Amino acid sequence: MNAPAKGFTPSRRDVLVVTAATAGGALLVGCSPATLLSIGAKTDFGAFGPFIKIAPDGAVTVISKHIEFGQGNHAGLAAIAAEELDADWDKVKVEQAPAIAKVYQNIGMGVQGTGGSSAIANSWMQLRQAGAAARAMFVQAAAARWSVPAGEVTVKNGVVGHASGKSATFGELVADAAKIKPPENPTLKDPKAFTLIGTDRVRRKDSAAKSTGTARYTQDVHLPNMLTAMVAHAPRFGGKVKSFDDKAARAVPGVVDVFKIPSGVAVVASSTWAARQGRDALKVDWDDAKAERRSSDEIMAQYHAIASGQQTPDGEAKWQVFQTGGDPAQPMSGTVVEAAYDFPFLAHATMEPMNCVAEIGGGKHKLTFGSQIPTVDQLNTGKIAGALPGSVEIETLFAGGSFGRRANFQSDYVSECVHIAKHVGDGRPVKLVWTREDDMTAGYYRPMVHHAVKVSLGADGFPAHWRHRLVTQSIMKGSPIPAGKGPDATAVEGAMGSPYLKATPIVDGQVSLPPAGVPVLWWRSVGATHTAFVMEHTIDQLARKAGKDPVEYRRALYQKAKADRHLAALNLAVEKAGKAADGWTQGVAVHESFGTVVAQVAEVKLDGGVPKVGRVVCAVDCGLAISPDQIAAQMEGGVCYGLSAALYGQITMKNGIVDQKNFDAYRVLRMSEAPTVETYIVPSANKPSGIGEPGVPVIAPAVANALLAISGKPTLSLPFVKPA
Asked: I need a labelling partner for 702 at 20 to 30 A (CA). Which of 17, 27, 368, 653 fits?
């Protein structure tokens, strides 16, 4: 099925096809969900395809299907295409792709979206082929113009040349090259011939715009006749509007309208300030009959009861095996080590709270904002507005962070904006603004988690029998993504498949996923946020119980599990870290997530009873390194983000109401607390793997292991610093 042309008008059959696809009906043979969800989309690609545009002056624009929300992926994506094209890197820029899932889908997701540290990995071959095809077109154009064999034509830094001395820039040849049919299977470079990829020349393309304030974010959008909206949300999750008094709200100067939407009461005004004052003046009576009224402590107590066997889970909470080996029924013998760990709810705490601009009605369906999964946002908008998903235009802007928050199945804040804009009507633009308090109390969280681990050591001091019980909410519950075999992988990733379990003869790993009314979502590095801590901190305790050095203990286990990448990363990190400075103690941790192995050595000391981290040495195996500078930046950011949560992060509830409403109560790492981070890349010829998230989960166990060396006491709950 080809993409529809501009001006496409959907037939009744098209509507039925999309309805079937989005409602779980049978798909037409040969049509993917991405194709079906793109019906109604407008396409107008140039001669060089959907990923590359070349201007008459020779400037090269790489079209990125992935959003840039601080992670710096645009530079790496552009470098992949520019390398194969042999473009002049100084003349390469990046443009955000339109929302067309058929063309710009994330290969690993099946929809257009950014997540799972997949931007570089899933675009690797796609952008190489796009760049190589464009290069071949220029070579053919030059060969024809100069009447020379194509094999004798060279390309370097945007200049096409021949041994005879003839040369032409991309700009001089672009008209001729555009007439040539792109090759379907262009010849790719041998990575040994790369001159851009893997060098420090690959630096961010957006730094100047973000430094000068010219980069465009949702709050920068100001359209003619635009209104601003805010929403009053229920104080408890699951609460509904029973009734409301809007008299005082409507009396606020600038307030245009007040009305109910599915998630609360919307106040629409001529300005953000008027919308805020109008919302504050509202009187809402909430129906909490189906709301979550438990405290976070009560939920955790339930998790403990399930893990300990005091409460028998049933239904969706029934125990599921995530890893097994040997005979789990065999009783443990010898030295036994037990540990139980608690992890709190965590907020994403993005620097830019949620916001969106929607224009609905009058023949228009357009969203302007930082869309992380455009296909899902199109689908949810289409359902509300009564439009084909592919006909929903999305202009994706920069976003100030996400860490997973902007990607949820319900498109929560986007759907709010669409409901409001639909009510306003006539395509009049509406900007929805969430405050920090809105996002902190009415958003999504990293799930609360409890682990109970019991390990017996063999005569050699290594794990002989590992029993693991994990209790948490399921992130994937209610997901439109078909459930595969086994438990929710987002809950157990990092424990499931761990080299430590592979090296253990008897393994009994099970997970229980009891429901709760608190909305949960992936949080930067997802399941690894807690499993890395449990596995790495437990290993240090086992090593000390066996009287072995933690580093040597890991080396032996990696050799048993044939975990060569873990071993190489560990060895590099330890070598580069050297000995700890006087007064500091080192802790080590190693973890794989999103295909990347990260080893960290953290130097820690106690300052007034509070952990202080001075230096962190990271060794990273992420396959072929596209941009070493950006890899280092991601390690620095990941360490600080993970350390911030480990030291201070927690969302608590009393009677179903969130306690933390802003950064005064949900403290984050200060600049003065940020450690020095050194990054070393393990040489690799493998395809690139994820880098945006793998640095996050390793820092907390590295710090905990240093504290264990200092005090001899394990850390059994986070955050490290408990509130007074």
From this structure: 653
